[in-house]
Amino acid sequence: MTTIRLKKRTPLSLMVALILLDVVLPAQEQAILDDEPPLLYSLTPALADVRNPERYGVRNLFDRNPATCWALADNGIGQRILIGVVPGTSAIRLVNGYAKSPELFAKNNRLKKIIAHLYVGFSFASRVSEIGWLYDLYPVAEKTILELRDSSAPQVLPLPFDWKKIEKKKQQSWAAMQKRIVAMSEPEREGFDIRRLEQYLIALEIAAIFPGSHFSDTCLSDLEFLPLMTKIPTSGDLLGTWQTLRGADAEETTFEIDDGECRYYSYSGGRPWAAGSWLLQEGILKVFMEGFDQPVIFTRVILAGDTLTLVTNDGRVEEMRKSK
């Protein structure tokens, strides 16, 4: 079993937990993911620039700016990135190469083929250190080989994931995890009983490249995942009880409308945690907690299947799944 510990980087306002890997993922492995929204890590440094160390950093993948890129020296073949995704993810949208200009695109290597692996990770609320959250990872789908076009235009690569089968595989993985829990210390076992955290992750491995005319660096400008179905929820979509997956202190939250008033109640360890009112208007959720003068404002509210993702203006992410 391998535990991957990675150097902390500056947080960005996007909903991923990302690790750069240069080791082969075994059948069951541990990885440390940071639950902030998100912190990027780099085990293998990106292409160095003494004047601007972040010029080719991995954060550039998520800025939606084709004039920046993530660059790896020595062709990058075999390098992997591990990225948190939501259930229902069905495709990858990317911009290949260094797309700042046709000249830079041609001079540097581009991706020709990548291998995608899907995992589920399990942890619990107190399994955290100053580095991040320790997750156990289990594969839940067969690897998929994706072929890219040698073009700087955006391209979408379908991911042939059967999410119904994946959910069943997740339950089997949890059963295997429970066998490991038996061998854990008592505090660890109690942690899993109190609050289980889970996270789907996709590992992308560089398998082949289009060679550049001048340099051996391999570049990728942009990367994002497309859910099968996402929507900006209505007030009616929020009603009910939601179990926290990550980001929130409370273990569950209930949204309801009582006599025309929008109320919410949150709980932790079976005890009341917070209460107040809420307002969802034009895709912005305001939560007014009793005892606080200012509301918590979520500027992005996304519903993908039964998973609700809330993002504040400063990038803090809370993710919840609706109780059945």
Question: Could you outline the blueprint of secondary structure elements for this entry?
Answer:
Layout: E1 3-4, E2 8-11, E3 18-21, E4 29-33, E5 39-41, E6 70-72, E7 80-85, E8 89-96, H1 102-107, E9 110-124, E10 133-139, E11 144-147, E12 155-158, H2 163-182, H3 186-194, E13 196-210, E14 218-227, E15 230-231, H4 235-238, E16 240-246, E17 252-258, E18 261-268, E19 271-281, E20 284-289, E21 296-304, E22 307-312, E23 317-322
Parallel strand pairs: 1-4
Antiparallel strand pairs: 2-5, 3-7, 4-10, 6-14, 7-13, 8-12, 8-14, 9-10, 9-11, 9-13, 15-21, 16-17, 16-23, 17-18, 18-19, 19-20, 20-21, 21-22, 22-23
Description:
With 324 residues, the protein is mainly beta. Helices cover 12% and strands 47% of the residues. It contains 4 helices and 23 strands. Strand 18 and strand 19 (271-281) form a beta hairpin. The longest helix is centred in the middle third of the chain and has 20 residues, at 163-182. The model is unreliable at 1-27 and 36-43 (pLDDT under 50).
Helix content: 10-25%
Instruction: Report the major sheet.
Output: 8 strands, mixed
> Structural class, from helix and strand content?
mainly beta
Number of helices: 4
Mean residue pLDDT: 80
